[in-house]
Amino acid sequence: MSKLLVGTATVDITPPTGMPMVGNFRDDYAARGKHDPLCAKAVVFAEPGGIKAARVVLDLCFIDGNNVAVMRQYIADHCDVPPQNVMIGATHTHSGPATSPWLDFDFDLDNMRPQVETILTKAASSVVLANEKLVPADLAVGRSSEDRVSFNRRLRRKDGSTQMNWEALSPDFDPDEIDAPWGTVDYEMLCLTIERDGQPAAASVNFALHPAILAGDNWLYSADFPGYVAESMQKTLGEDFFCQYINGCCGNVNHIDYKDSNQGRGFNMTQRVGYMLGAAAHQAVAKRKPVSSTPLAVATDLVCLEHAKITDEQLDWSKKVLDEAARNPPKGLVDGLPDAYYAKTYLSMFEKQDQPDQVEVMSIRIGEVALVGLPGEIFCEFGIDIKRRSPAAYTLIGELCGDSIGYVPTKESFVQGGYEPMTGTTLYEEEAGNKLTEAVMSQLQRLYSE
């Protein structure tokens, strides 16, 4: 059997200063400069004379279905990689530009459509370029673990209530009031390594952690810690080493240790976390084992999700809050969202609450390796469950792929309360995560029974 062909490409997609930054509620959204570049990174896989598939990741907070369609159309017009075989996702950096309206705070993007089109075109061109650089390659996968940089951010207080761990950065936070985190964390690092002439030349690095170390008090474009993961690997494996960061299911996971007040924010923390994860990724590459790279196959399904329902009480509350917000506009926040956001979101949700959404779930089989793409900010428990049940020897899961549908919490978290399962932060009914999980399992069973 002929060896799999693999091509990689990196394209700088950093826009001009002034585009609105997305990921936090701000008084002023306009970016004031660049700290480090934003990139699109693509890997194209091809069986000689046969199927092609690709995985591309953008340094953006999210990418919605409309923009995914624009990118796929560009790919269809400029190369022979089937657009339906291209998995497109975002790293979820909170320091990237908006390419579409964010939730229900509309950015003034009308005058910035040329910049948005440029971002999407450049990002799509990474697939075209990678397709032009296809060469025979061997694949290997390595595992490692890093348990010092990621924490479940949902804290169970001793009184049974829920508190978010970013409140630990406040001077009046009392850690003695916390019993324990509500959920778990996925500490596993997986690296799909591309070898050429027996040496590692590229890797897709999969780890689950919110790239929100830089939050609402930063106005510089940055890839957040995924940029430093790539930088650290280039320092140890060569400046030409290609590193694509695939962010795992981390909807309830961030970098803040509520017991350690030094686990804060800023570029120093971003670099610390990125380099620690880079060391873990280097360890995984060093421990890699060869894997079969054929057959190559793709599965895509649309999953029907029901919207969360808005009550009459929530509608009445929303109107009162928006009346007050018109007189006293809410101030920017480093974390979380103001009541005015939820009020506006409730009204928007009410208009379409009886119209289910069809959301994309996608899997790519590369021999013993599965790449999975889910469309929302997925709680880590779902990622752990998918990996545990997967028929593939190695399963790399990326969230915010194909679309952006908000948080997808576990059913249990709706009873616990807190930020993510709150109506308006999550848009769908409680079974959404289970439905997405079962759709992925069905795909993987099909792909690995052929």
User: What is the overall number of helices?
Assistant: 9
In the residues, how many domains can be counted?
Answer: 2
Instruction: Please count the beta strands (DSSP E, at least 2 residues each).
Output: 25
Q: Kindly report the average pLDDT value.
A: 94
Which key terms come to mind for this protein?
450 residues; five-stranded mixed beta sheet; 28% helix; alpha+beta; globular; 2 domains
Structural description of this entry:
- With 450 residues, this protein is of the alpha+beta class.
- It contains nine helices and 25 strands.
- The chain has two domains: 5-301 and 357-447, no CATH class; 310-351, no CATH class.
- The strands form eight sheets. A five-stranded mixed beta sheet has the order 6-5-4-1-8, with helices on one face. A five-stranded mixed beta sheet has the order 17-15-14-9-19.
- The longest helix is centred in the first third of the chain and has 20 residues, at 113-132.
- The mean pLDDT is 94.
